[in-house]
Amino acid sequence: MTDKNWDNIDQATMAVWAGExxxxxxxxxxxPIVNSVSYSHDDVDEWFEVxxxxxxxxxxxxxxxxxxxxxxxxxxxxxxxxxxTSFSTGMAAISNALFTFLSPGQRVVSTKDxxxxxxVVFLEHLPRFGVDVSLVETTDMDxxxxxxxxxxxxLYLETPTNPTMKVLDLKxxxxxxxxxxxxxxxxNTFATxxxxxxxxxxxxxxxxxxxxxxxxxxxxxxxxxxxxEDLIKKAYSFREINGASLxxxxxxxxxxxxxxxxxxxxxQNENALALAKYLEGHDKVEKVFYPGLENDPGHEIAKxxxxxxxxxxxxxxxxxxxxxxxxxxxxKYAHRAAHLGGVETILGPPRTASHVELTEEQRAxxxxxxxxxxxxxxxxxxxxxxxxxxxxxxxL
Length: 396
Ligand SMILES: *Cc1c(COP(=O)(O)O)cnc(C)c1O
Fold this sequence. Notes:
CATH architecture of the largest domain: 3-Layer(aba) Sandwich
Largest sheet: 7 strands, mixed
Distance between the termini: 58 Å
Bound molecules: pyridoxal-5'-phosphate
CATH topology of the largest domain: Aspartate Aminotransferase, domain 2
CATH superfamily of the largest domain: Type I PLP-dependent aspartate aminotransferase-like (Major domain)
Order of helices and strands: HHHEHEHEHEHEHEEHHHEHEHEEHEH
Number of helices: 15
Structural class: alpha/beta
Number of strands: 12
Strand order of the largest sheet: 1-7-6-5-4-2-3
């Protein structure tokens, strides 16, 4: 197969076919798992050309690997990027991006609600290397811009946020950061490329935990960074040396998952909206956090920048954490676990999972109620999910 033009092709088709044009040994129709650490070159001149990037090919799998290449190409096409490079986990992708593009004396601006691991990089690790970090109130766009005005080499955004589904105005903030010379990175893990493409809104780079919706089956970890070619080259050079490379076996599982990305995400968008509406009307529920609900504070902005509102939502129960204690074990068809984005419904209270290291006061400061449950809505039949929740509510 020859190189394709993806201009008028739907993401469902991209997810199946992008990156698949390479021919593999014996013409196998599926991408093989290439479990080879190195690649032998009988001709030393050819070896030299591959090693110096003058000819296509592979040298050593910490740098590049044929299975991993296909995963990167699929994601590059799905995010509409010039280039993409992969990592062993989402956190590897995020920390590589931050450490590639920030140097001592520089300044990064982000928000208080970033993913837990990302916050730790901002609060504990970047300062050790003399990087000035400013984390702003997540929904205060004016305050974010004011911090950018004080100096900003890198603007790091994440939307919708974990776990309270706050929405940032990407177009506005990206434009503001770019005009002032910052590199703008967006964590698009919750939205997926099906619902949101930050590069099309002007961002320089988009980062994902592939562990979540991209793989979609809760059986492989990975990360991906997509964007401008010159920036991706720099991030790749740093990753190649620090070694946080994606393994071929994981890449294969992620590739297999990616083929159904649009089907899954469409179903999860629909299921989450229906579940959010059910929960909103329930007398045992205190509050529902989902940008798909018309009265949600992020609804209007989300509508402008997202094609769907994601399969993630959270809700708080009346009666404090005691209600969570009763509700969670009563749900029949859900994992009670810390991850998200799988085909199965997954429930996790931030108090015991994502935000367990914070005190009650710190959680309150982030607007996280003690009785909050984060719900990654799966692809199960929505009537079954709602019936299951309804019987579990009876335990309260
Ligand atoms: C899970 C997650 C990460 C980290 O990804 P890992 O693959 O677990 O390292 C980063 N950002 C968001 C929004 C996530 O949900």
